[in-house]
Write a structure and sequence with these properties.
Blueprint: H1 4-14, E1 23-33, E2 39-47, E3 52-58, E4 61-64, H2 67-71, H3 74-85, H4 102-114, E5 118-121, H5 124-134, H6 146-153, E6 166-170, E7 173-177, H7 179-190, H8 195-221, E8 225-229, H9 236-248, E9 252-254, H10 266-288
Parallel strand pairs: 1-8, 3-7, 8-9
Antiparallel strand pairs: 1-2, 2-3, 4-5, 6-7
Length: about 290
C-alpha cells in the first residue's frame, strides 16, 4: 500500500526533525517496484507525508533476466548497448565484451529483442552497474552494490566535465535519457581515456541531472527543499557533488542523519505514511458524520 520510493523520501523527511511540508524528492536506488509494473529507481517525486506525484524519472531500459542482471552487471551494460546499437553490439570489440561468452551475448540480445523474461527499469543503481561493467571495473558481483562501490573508488574529481544526456516529456512527466552519455563513454574508452577520468565524469553527470531537474521543479512548484534518499546516496562522491550544486543554487537539501538512506530506512517512511493516511481517513469519516 505504500510505494517504495515515497517511503524513501518520507523517511528522509522524518529524519530531518519531522519535516512534513512538501518537498522535491530524489529517490535513487537499485530496485523498487513502481505503480506501472516496472522496476523504478531513478525517481523525482513531489511528496508530503500522505501523497506523492512522480514528476521525472530515468528512461526505461530492459532488465534482462531480472535478478540475474543484478548479480551480473555486464547484463545491464549489454542492455544499454543493445538498446542504442542493436545487433552491432556483437562487433563493437569493447574490452569487457571479451570476458563474456559470445553465445550468451547473442542470447541476451534475442531476449531483449523478443521481450522474453524482461522487466523494464528506470533504476539509477542499474545505470551505475552498466557503466561499471562498460569500464571493465566490475562485471560480476559478490555482494550488493559492488559494481557501484568499485566505480566510485576509481573516480577522481574533475571540474567542469559532463557527459551529454537528454530530457524529454512523455505524458506530462520528464524522462531522462542517457543514450548520449553511453555513446560518449564508449568514445572515451576507444580514445584511451582512463577509467578514473570516465568514472569522475559520470558521477558529475548524474549530479548535473539532479541539479537540472530540481532547478526546473523548484520554478514550477515553488518548493525549494530537496530530499535525497535511496541506496545510491550511500555513494559519498555523488552525494557531495549533488549537495554542493543544489545548495549553490539556493536549494535547501535534506539528507539522512540517523536513519539509513538505503532500504534499512524505508520502514520509518512506511510507518509515517500509514499514520498520515489513517488520520486523513479518520478526518474524512468525521466530516461525513
Amino acid at each position: 500500500p505504500v510505494q517504495h520510493h515515497h517511503a524513501h523520501i518520507v523517511s528522509c523527511m522524518a529524519d530531518n526533525n519531522g519535516l512534513s511540508e512538501p518537498v522535491i524528492g530524489v529517490a535513487f536506488d537499485g530496485t523498487g517496484y513502481g505503480e506501472d509494473g516496472a522496476v523504478w529507481g531513478g525517481e523525482f517525486i513531489l511528496a508530503d507525508y500522505s501523497d506523492y506525484r512522480r514528476v521525472a524519472h530515468f528512461e526505461y531500459v530492459p532488465l534482462p533476466g531480472g535478478d540475474a542482471a543484478i548479480l551480473k552487471p555486464y547484463r545491464m551494460a549489454l542492455s544499454y548497448l543493445f538498446k542504442i546499437f542493436g545487433s552491432d553490439v556483437l562487433n563493437m570489440g569493447l574490452p569487457f565484451l571479451r570476458r563474456i561468452d559470445q553465445d550468451e551475448i547473442a542470447i541476451i540480445g534475442m531476449q531483449i529483442k523478443g521481450g522474453l523474461n524482461i522487466l523494464q527499469t528506470s533504476s539509477c543503481g542499474r545505470l551505475f552497474d552498466a557503466v561499471s561493467a562498460l569500464l571493465d571495473v566490475c562485471g560480476e558481483t559478490d555482494y550488493e552494490g559492488q559494481a557501484a562501490v568499485e566505480l566510485e573508488s576509481v573516480a577522481q574529481i574533475i571540474t567542469g566535465e559532463r557527459y551529454p544526456y537528454n530530457i524529454f516529456d512523455k505524458d506530462g512527466i520528464r524522462v531522462i535519457s542517457f543514450d548520449g552519455m553511453i555513446r560518449a563513454i564508449i568514445n572515451d574508452i576507444r580514445n584511451g581515456a582512463g577509467i578514473s577520468f570516465i568514472s569522475a565524469k559520470f558521477h558529475a553527470t548524474i549530479a548535473d541531472v539532479i541539479l537540472n531537474v530540481c532547478r526546473q521543479l523548484v520554478k514550477e512548484n515553488n518548493i525549494n527543499k530537496v530530499a535525497l534518499s535511496g541506496g545510491v546516496f550511500q555513494n559519498r562522491l555523488l552525494l557531495e557533488l549533488a549537495v554542493r550544486r543544489l545548495e549553490e543554487n539556493g536549494m535547501i537539501v535534506l539528507m539522512h542523519k540517523d536513519v539509513p538512506a538505503n532500504d534499512g530506512g524505508i520502514a520509518l517512511g512506511q510507518a509515517v505514511i500509514a499514520q498520515s493516511k489513517m488520520h486523513k481517513a479518520q478526518d474524512a469519516m468525521r466530516n461525513e458524520i
